[in-house]
Amino acid sequence: MTKIMMFGVREDEKGLAREWAKENKVTLDFSEDILTMETIEQLEAYDGVTTQQTGKLDDRIYKRLNELGIKQIAQRSAGFDMYNLEEAAKNDVIISNVPSYSPNSISEYAVTAALQLVRKTDLIEKKVKEHDFRWIEEIRAREIKSLEVAIIGTGRIGQIAAQIFRGFGSKVVGYDLYPNEAAKEFIEYKDSVEEAIENADIVSIHMPATEDNYHLFNKDLFNLFKDGAIFINTARGSIVDTKALIEALDNGKLAGAALDTYEYESTYFPKDYRGKEITDPVLKELLAREDVLLTPHIAFYTDVAVKNLVEGGLDAVLSVLKTGTCETRLN
Ligand code: NAD
After folding, report:
1. Is the dihedral of CA 198, 203, 206, 207 positive or negative?
2. 289: pLDDT strictly greater than 90
3. Any idea what the Cα angle at residue 196 is, between residues 193 and 200, rounded to 5°?
4. CATH number corresponding to 3-101+303-323
5. pLDDT tens-digit series, residues 106-125
6. Is the distance from the beta carbon of residue 96 to the nearest atom of ligand 1 less than 6 Å?
7. For the CA of 298, the nearest atom of ligand 1
8. Where in the chain is the domain with CATH 3.40.50.720?
């Protein structure tokens, strides 16, 4: 019987994975470890592997996988910046992802976070808990309908976020390296990121992390933001220079930021750090700030998304084993 190892497994994935294994008549084992040069030895006698990596993989992994007779790694996420696709191809290892498991989940979260910051819900809740029920300027919010929203990266997730904001009546502008013809109906495209953010009250980013956009949101770009803008990052941490973002919050360029990703998150997210010391000074600063809504990469985290990720990863493994390839291969 085909034997698949599911690395990086969480408790909440196991039930769905067991159902899939039963339906597909496959032996499935679980490991909470992620794939490293040490844990790779657990794969001896397995036919395939699916995992949920967060940090970069050691390049030696691909050669060792080949030696173990494993021909693929099926990543259970959309992002694949942690893989060296060329090195994997050289060693006949097919890398696949689950490109679209619920764009709505991420878009809905980006909008939720924007609303939370614009409507100052955390501050209002804090005041109510202290029995301060006054109507005072500190909690007076802006109307979402009156705001201009800039969507940077107008693919699957960005387009849905744009449509939800349009539902509120907001003006939506956008920038993408490749503007989408159909999205021109509801996004006013600009020719550069600088032009898109210029008048925006909310800037929400929805593009993959690439070498070209590393720290794209840096001091110079934040300086061009409208005063008091709100910045939402549900994309990838490396797109933002976090120290420059903190400076922009300090000098009032930004009124608030919702960060669902952080450049050095892989040490912390999604782990239980209760009672343990956080040593990263930048992360500590983000956690301490009232103007930052920090979440542990949970924008995607809905029941629909988890089901699609588990099944998408396992389907890709089985497809490579049966046909030598899969629809979601990346190299
Ligand atoms: P997509 O491929 O459908 O769209 C990405 C868009 O970004 C494309 O239109 C592309 O042309 C554009 N783009 C790429 N580089 C750009 C640049 N430098 N400037 C402007 N536009 C650029 O991807 P998607 O499904 O919409 O996902 C977007 C991103 O969301 C993912 O790459 C991932 O980083 C992030 N994501 C986050 C979570 C989460 O839980 N926080 C979950 C899934 C995906």
Report:
1. positive
2. yes
3. 130
4. 3.40.50.720
5. 999 999 999 999 999 999 99
6. no
7. 40
8. 3-101+303-323, 103-294
Specify the CATH number of the domain 103-294.
Answer: 3.40.50.720
Q: pLDDT at position 330, please? A: 97
Task: Find the angle CA(183)-CA(184)-CA(188) to the nearest 5 degrees.
Answer: 115
220 close to 191: Cβ distance less than 8 angstroms: no
What is the maximum alpha-carbon separation in the chain? 68
Sheet holding 48-51, edge to edge: 27-30, 3-6, 48-51, 72-75, 94-96
> Does residue 133 have a pLDDT over 90?
yes
Q: Is the CB of 235 under 6 A from ligand 1?
A: yes
Which H helix or E strand runs over 286?
A: helix 281-288
Rounded Cα gap, residues 327 and 316, in angstroms: 8
CA 280 to chain centre: 20
210-251 residue pLDDT tens:
899 999 999 999 999 999 999 999 999 999 999 999 999 999
Q: Is 99 exposed, middle or buried (0-12, 13-18, 19+ CB in 10 A)?
A: middle
* Measured distance CA(314)–CA(73) in Å, rounded: 10
Given a cut of 90, is residue 55 above it in pLDDT?
no
Pick from 312, 304, 307, 308: nearest CA to 109: 304
Please give the number of the atom of ligand 1 that sits closest to the Cα of 99.
Answer: 25
Distance (Å) from CA 60 to ligand 1 centroid: 28
Give, in degrees to the nearest 5, the angle at Cα 173 between 302 and 110.
20
Q: Pseudo-torsion of CA 157, 266, 80, 172, nearest 10°? A: 20
Give the pLDDT confidence of 78-88 residue by residue, as tens digits. 889 899 999 99
158, 151 contact by CB (below 8 A): yes
